[in-house]
Amino acid sequence: MKDVYIFAIESSCDETSASIIKNGEEEINTVILSQIDIHKKFGGVVPEIASRSHTENITIVIDECLKGANMKMEDMTAIAVTYGPGLAGALLIGVEAAKTLSLIYNKPLIAVNHIAGHIYANKLEHNLKFPLISLVISGGHTEIIYMEDDFSFKNIGGTLDDSVGEAYDKVARVIDVPYPGGPVIDKYAKKGKHTYNLPIPMDDESYNFSFSGIKSAVINLVHNEKQRGNEIDKYNLCTSFEDVVVEILTKKTMRAVKEYNVKQLLIAGGVSANSAIRERFSELCDKENVELLVPKLKYCTDNAAMIGSAAYKMYLKKQFASYDLRIMPTLELANKK
Amino acid sequence: MICLFLDTSLDNLLVYLLKDGKVIYEKNIQSLRDHSSHLVPSIKEAFDTTNISLKDLDKIFVGNGPGSFTGTRIGITVAKVLAYSLNIDIVPISSIQKFIYSVCGYDYYVPVLEDRKDMLYFSIFDKNKKRLIDDTYASRDEFLDYLKKYDGKIVIISDSDYENYDNHKKEVDVVNMINYIKDDKSVNPHSLKPNYIKKIEAESKL
């Protein structure tokens, strides 16, 4: 078969990215323009600013991606783009750019689910063996997905309120850690001890999660300690918080791994960059003799390479989109069980 | 000479294809909040139905606001990618300026776009339709005060009626408009961005 080159675009949140992926696995070139420094001063992603920044950078990112690969758009087989879930105004920029490229160069348009992209980020480095369980953890998502085969997604559980990433960001704000708080909490947690008593959230028989309570528990704890005139030990608080989060994530995910008798566990999404989560899953998977796939750090956060990887499977199935494609800000990967 | 004019800043989606100054494809539909699903299909239709290849396009004119932030970005993004990919000239035009070309015989042309809470965008052009001020965001009172500085026959082009002035409806005469702006300087597609005018809330709170 002829080589398939997919030109992929991702703009669902605060990264403008373009990538060229060969045959679904080989990354030819990826450009990621992160807006993190712009959003930092606001303490979080401001959707209108993200949309403005995508608009200003979209053709620059496309151009750099082609030039870096020493390729032309004519060399591409198809154009892929994230159409949801994500921020509406941000998604629109990538989608309009991809539609226009598809029209100009007469290449099929592939509309990719962002979460499928995070899962298929693992395909850039490893072979997926089915059935598998994927834990998708990011600023917007916390879901356990069961996959019997390629592009067959069954949602067996997920968060009922905040995502893991949101919980990290909220705790970071309570203890005055700059945005984005996740990586800093991860670093602090390494230096502290589990001294604060926090409840394990939603410790039940379901595969669902709830992280809004843990945020309140941390706020109350900080408040009470202050009232007593006690100084909060940030390091110990981070360790205590992270321990509880890792405990519930691993407990439920590993139960799913056993119940569904899978060969692989895939961790995906921005929070999969967290070192404590990686280490704990690695220990548990070794014990259970299950293969653990965690993407390289550069594939954890939002990027177009993962979109190109997922799009390849859709290309083979000829799942193409038309030019009246609408963005789907609340798109789900699969129906909830 | 093949020109494409796009504007998605306001309620109506505008896609016009012109050949040697004549309109050969015209789409002017109300599609507020759904410009995204109509714009690229309309461009495809424009070229398909006229049997012209996108590769033959010489120049793009695009509305760059003021108006809906999201709407403006849709047209700007598509226009940027077209101009960059086809390596052709791109000329931005104010989304309110486009209304002055359906009126004539005045000393001053004043297009107005009403916004929320008695606020509006306006601009002023002279009798040769030369721009006198940048598009400006102001309250209705500030605007009417400002307008007193101008002596002569004034027409306000808007959706409402302003006392003591001649009023005209917002209409688009694309042929006349392109005649006036066809030699306007083109910009680098990479650096083209909407003219939002208004600051966003998060910024003004900093």
List the defining traits of the structure above.
heterodimer, A: 337 residues, alpha/beta, Nucleotidyltransferase, domain 5, 2 domains, five-stranded mixed sheet, 10 strands, B: 206 residues, 27% strand
Write structural notes for this entry.
The complex is a heterodimer of chains A (337) and B (206). Chain A is an alpha/beta fold. Chain A has 2 domains: 5-120 and 299-316, 2-Layer Sandwich (Nucleotidyltransferase, domain 5); 128-294, ATPase, nucleotide binding domain (Nucleotidyltransferase, domain 5, 2-Layer Sandwich). Helices cover 44% and strands 18% of the residues of chain A. In chain A, the strands form 2 sheets. Chain A has a 5-stranded mixed β-sheet with strand order 3-2-1-4-5, sandwiched between helices. In chain A, strands 8-7-6-9-10 form a 5-stranded mixed β-sheet, with helices on both faces. In chain A, helix 2 (47-69) packs parallel to helix 3 (88-105) and helix 8 (234-259) packs parallel to helix 9 (275-288). Chain B is of the alpha/beta class. Chain B folds into 2 domains: 2-95 and 172-205, 2-Layer Sandwich (Nucleotidyltransferase, domain 5), CATH 3.30.420.40; 97-168, Nucleotidyltransferase, domain 5 (2-Layer Sandwich), CATH 3.30.420.200. Chain B has 5 helices and 10 strands; from the N terminus they run E-E-E-H-E-H-E-E-E-E-H-E-E-H-H. Chain B has helices at residues 35-50, 69-86, 140-147, 174-181, 201-205; strands spanning 2-7, 12-19, 22-30, 59-63, 89-93, 108-114, 119-122, 136-139, 154-157, 166-168. Chain B has a 5-stranded mixed β-sheet with strand order 3-2-1-4-5, with helices on both faces. Chain B has a 5-stranded mixed β-sheet with strand order 8-7-6-9-10. In chain B, strand 6 (108-114) and strand 7 form a beta hairpin. In chain B, helix 1 (35-50) packs parallel to helix 2 (69-86). The longest helix of chain B has 18 residues, at 69-86. Chain B is globular. Classes of the chains: A alpha/beta (337), B alpha/beta (206).
